[in-house]
Amino acid sequence: xxxxxxxxxxxxxxxxxxxxxxxxxxxxxxxxxxxxxxxxxxxxxxxxxxxxxxxxxxxxxxxxxxxxxxxxxxxxxxxxxxxxxxxxxxxxxxxxxxxxxxxxxxxxxxxxxxxxxxxxxxxxxxxxxxxxxxxxxxxxxxxxxxxxxxxxxxxxxxxxxxxxxxxxxxxxxxxxxxxxxxxxxxxxxxxxxxxxxxxxxxxxxxxxxxxxxxxxxxxxxxxxxxxxxxxxxxxxxxxxxxxxxxxxxxxxxxxxxxxxxxxxxxxxxxxxxxxxxxxxxxxxxxxxxxxxxxxxxxxxxxxxxxxxxxxxxxxxxxxxxxxxx
Amino acid sequence: xxxxxxxxxxxxxxxxxxxxxxxxxxxxxxxxxxxxxxxxxxxxxxxxxxxxxxxxxxxxxxxxxxxxxxxxxxxxxxxxxxxxxxxxxxxxxxxxxxxxxxxxxxxxxxxxxxxxxxxxxxxxxxxxxxxxxxxxxxxxxxxxxxxxxxxxxxxxxxxxxxxxxxxxxxxxxxxxxxxxxxxxxxxxxxxxxxxxxxxxxxxxxxxxxxxxxxxxxxxxxxxxxxxxxxxxxxxxxxxxxxxxxxxxxxxxxxxxxxxxxxxxxxxxxxxxxxxxxxxxxxxxxxxxxxxxxxxxxxxxxxxxxxxxxxxxxxxxxx
Lengths: 325, 318
What we know:
The complex is a heterodimer of chains A (325) and B (318).
Chain A: E1 6-17, E2 22-28, H1 30-33, E3 41-44, E4 56-64, E5 78-84, H2 88-93, E6 101-108, E7 120-126, H3 131-142, E8 159-166, H4 175-180, E9 184-189, E10 196-197, H5 200-207, E11 216-221, H6 224-236, E12 241-244, E13 261-264, E14 305-308, E15 316-318
Parallel strand pairs in A: 7-8, 7-11, 8-9, 9-10, 11-12
Antiparallel strand pairs in A: 1-2, 1-6, 2-5, 3-4, 3-6, 4-5, 12-15, 13-14
Helix pairs in contact in A: 5-6
Chain B: E1 12-14, E2 17-19, E3 23-25, H1 34-37, E4 47-53, E5 66-69, E6 72-75, H2 83-95, E7 102-106, H3 111-122, E8 129-133, H4 150-163, E9 168-171, H5 179-188, E10 193-196, E11 200-203, E12 205-206, E13 211-212, E14 218-222, H6 227-240, E15 245-248, H7 254-263, E16 265-270, H8 273-276, H9 280-295, H10 311-317
Parallel strand pairs in B: 3-4, 3-16, 4-7, 7-8, 8-9, 9-10, 10-15, 15-16
Antiparallel strand pairs in B: 1-2, 5-6, 6-14, 11-14, 12-13
Helix pairs in contact in B: 3-4, 4-5, 5-6, 6-7, 7-9
């Protein structure tokens, strides 16, 4: 069980444009930063007014813990989120000024977890899906650091490769951070303006063939079609794959059931953390309204499923549990 | 926060139900209580109403289930819930310790299902009452909503009344021709109180793909946008019935809650505002106290139905 989230007024330490429509926002919030784990998220309140009505969810792109808090311009324990302007809410967000305070609720959801016996990690990020993987890449890189000799195999940092994809080079971010942390980066852009011309999933298909793919774990975040393809590659090579999903959310704490996704019920080895209410929704008469063509992914008759809350059971899921079509 | 001694009285009575303050958490926005228990003290609430419960678990609707709208939101959750067995076994142990009265929102697809769930819950310890959600399709009458027809409201509420001695609050839908007729039918069938309004049916469209945003196409509109509608319906209903009315719909701050009480509500429910501000209920309670202090009003109950509008005012509107 995760600790309860905190609601805090966080000071904006840094707010920068980092691409045509990408922004970086660093927030001083010790209460959240001390508890936060890579893959978890926070809900940010856009306004004190009644409109826009809902908070917005953002995954942590970096978590600045007390130990490493001596950085400029940060002098406080903080978290960082990155966002892309996609609608009214995020456009409003761009107006926030450094020094201003903003209402946060977090940390929320379940973060990434390490996969047993995986000594090699491939991170696959598409567009604004790259930043949430950065905090995890950093944590994996720092594993066992500070100890002279790692006492357990699990404390040895795995071999890391970060595959990044976007439409064009302006939308690639985090390369510098990764280089700084000593993480290998490969880039694919759809227009070929940086790295390989093509999709990040092409990089994955190539990368998984090399090295010790039998000991590889995959972590991915990005648009759903991309995640579906990543999941397919993982399935093909029978490798564990965790995906960080995005969803429209209202409460962020598991109360409203608004962010749910279809979730496969079968038990398979190496599963994600135990799910609450596991039995409750199983095997009952489907409440699915009649499936309209195209509106709802068709699930075969034989796939038992339930709806899992992205905010509580996720946002990180075992890719095999998600319906991708 | 000011000194609490000698402060105004903010406890209210909703029929036989005594609440330490008039602010309840509305069904569907507060889960089963535990989801918010680490963020706010449930003890401070007047009452909490759990997510709508049916006999069997329900999976709910396909996503997307949410759409933000101007000063509000649409939801089409599809009444997903754990079912009565898991509710009693897994949710009630926590709820018994919540420290505030717990009302259980119930629904069914037939009158018999409503009666059965009400009967089974009446044997469960720690439940202060039931809120009957009648905004559901009646499977035996071609899927039209129970709430839409005073006759079917009378029948379903009568069945629940016969099945359970518990405090019964019937939650009315605004998606009806004449809310007063529905309210009178529920009262006649033996309801102890009425709560209104449930969400207004609406929809949203993605113009790029020309598809509905919600997986279910239509959904329930809630949030500040619906407050004027709720207020009008509470005002109309409170004048027509003798049982207490509880105001719901778009309450976001103490002023909103006070408006509802002045219109005739004995208490209020806070719903979607929890998503924006998990502590909104507590802020509203404080705000009501501040208002009473500032106005020199010793008892919040004296506000209920105190709207200064004569019959003439009402006639002149038409």
